[in-house]
Structure formats: structure tokens, C-alpha cells
Amino acid sequence: MKRQPAKKQCKTSIESTKLARSDIPDIVNGIVASCNKDGCFDHVSAEPIPNRDAIITILRHANRILYPGYFIQTRLDQTNVKYYLGQEVSELFETLSQQIILAIRHDCIRHNQPCIKCEELGQEITITFLQHLPELRQMLAKDIRAAYGGDPAAKGYDEIIFSYPGLRAITIYRIAHRLHHLGVPLIPRIMAEYAHSRTGIDIHPAADIGESFFIDHGTGVVIGETASIGNSVRIYQGVTLGALSLSKADCKRLRNQKRHPTIEDDVIIYANATILGGQTVVGARSVIGGNVWLTHSVPADTEVFIEKQDLIFGEKQYKKQAVKKGFK
């Protein structure tokens, strides 16, 4: 078979690409038309909305402030710490205030609310949040000490700060929780779901969690919106503090009601335990065993475990056949 000259092949490829690309305008027109139809979601508007990438940048700025010196490549000492933190806090103010302003404005327009001077309010909320950073650092220090005290595998605080997904999720939760209480719409939930995507730990920013909180391993942990957790609580991977399944009517009726359990101080909850319901209270110093399914309250100083299951041991089939044939 005679090969075509390279020049002729190139021209054929160009014409083929041109023909294929000629369909793109019609495809775009179809997508644009779908933006005017009910049932599809888009934000085609002159008013910008919060930006997810900017919110992730905010979390990185906050992380560098909450843990000075850990997540930078330059040396930090007493000579430059004030300049470093001044730069980080200034950049955090600019980025966070802008995103909060966008979130407030979007909420006002979406709900047709009267003007609340979103520029001034966004900057005011940002300053209030920044003023809480020393308090957040103290809370996180207690979480780190709880992790070290509860995990004999931890060789030091640095290892926990650098590598523990539980601490990463708790750090983002404490940031998002503070913004939630300051009335910031949308942004706290974006932060929480970013933490979920990075760690496998799902903590709603509205959940109320006390100090010295430790999540060991962490993958698959779910803590619902109205959950309440006391001080010095330790939970393991796969734990769910959730709500009972609701019908659509009940979901609407209970949207702002307590639907998730209360966990009092010094409770330990082992892997894959599920605790459900807004009326469920686990009393202080109780221990909930692995794989327990709990939908009613437990008094203080109680241990809840599944009764030991029967284990069946049997020889593998190939071993039985080998014995029959005289092999060992």
C-alpha cells in the first residue's frame, strides 16, 4: 500500500479537525439555551458569588497563622515572626473580607432582603474573626495535646500537626464554626466539605464541639449539624453522629430542630459505631463499643458493647483434598 506524503496527511488532518469543530457553536447554543430553562442550575448573573478556590486559599492562610512556622519553606524566628504574621493577617483580611462580602450580597439578592451594607458588614465580621485567632490557637493546642495523650503511636506534637487528618479536619471545623456563628452564609459549608474531601471526615460547621477533641484515624467519621459534643471526647474511624431518616415532610418541619445526638464529656466511641437522633444522649465517661447501633440515651459511666459473636473456624478446601491424596 502506497503511503500518502506527509504534507497531504497534514492537510487531511486539518480539514478533519475543522469539520469536527464546526459543530461547537451549535453545542454552545444548546448549553446557553439550557440556562434559561427550569430544572437546571447555573449562576449567569452580573453579581459574582464566592469563589471556592479563594476559600481554600483562605484556609491555607489561616493554617499558616494558627500554626506559625509549620507550613512555610522559610525560617521563622523572633526576628521576623511579627513581620511574617503581619503579612499573613493582612492578606487573610483582604481575601476573607472579599469572600464574605460576596456571600452576604448573594444571600441578600437570593432572598430579596433589604440592603444591610454588605461591604461594611463583611469587613466587620472579618475583623471579629481575626480577633478570635488567639483563642482558636488555644483550642487547637488542646486538641493536639488530646491527640498525643490518646494515641501511643504519636511520637510528638510535630507529627500530629503535620500528618494527622483528624487534626486537619478539626482545624478547618473550628475556623468554619467560628464563621458560622458570626452569621457568614455558604462559606463555612464550603470549608467543611473541602475538609471532607481531603480527610474523609465530615463535620458540619454548625455542630457544637468542646475542647480537647480527638478523632483517631478518622476516615468515614460523620458529625451532623445539630450534634453536641462535650470536652475530652475521643472517637475513632467510621463513627456516625447522625439523624434518623426522615420523610420529606418531616425534613421540612425539623430543618431547624435538633436531630443529632448529644455526647457528654470524656466519652469514647469506637470504630464504626452509629449514634442517631436528637433525643439521644450519651452520658459522661461512657464507652460505646465498635459497630454499636444506638438510637436511645445511655446513662453516665456506662459501657455499651455488642455481645461477642460466634466465630467459626474451618479448614480450607484445598487442604482437605491434599490430606485425602496423602500430601502434607
If you had to describe this structure to a student in words, what would you say it looks like?
The chain folds into 2 domains: 45-200, serine acetyltransferase, domain 1 (Orthogonal Bundle); 207-306, 3 Solenoid (UDP N-Acetylglucosamine Acyltransferase, domain 1). Helix content is 47%, strand content 9%. The model has no long low-confidence stretch (mean pLDDT 90). The strands form 3 sheets. A 5-stranded parallel β-sheet has the order 1-4-7-10-13. Strands 3-6-9-12-14 form a 5-stranded parallel β-sheet. The chain contains 11 helices and 14 strands. The chain starts with 5 loop residues before the first helix and ends with a helix. By secondary structure, the protein is α/β, with parallel strands linked by helices. The protein has helices at residues 6-21, 24-34, 52-66, 81-110, 118-131, 133-150, 157-163, 165-181, 187-199, 248-253, 317-324, and strands at 202-203, 208-209, 214-215, 222-223, 228-229, 234-235, 240-242, 262-263, 268-269, 274-276, 281-282, 287-288, 293-294, 303-304.
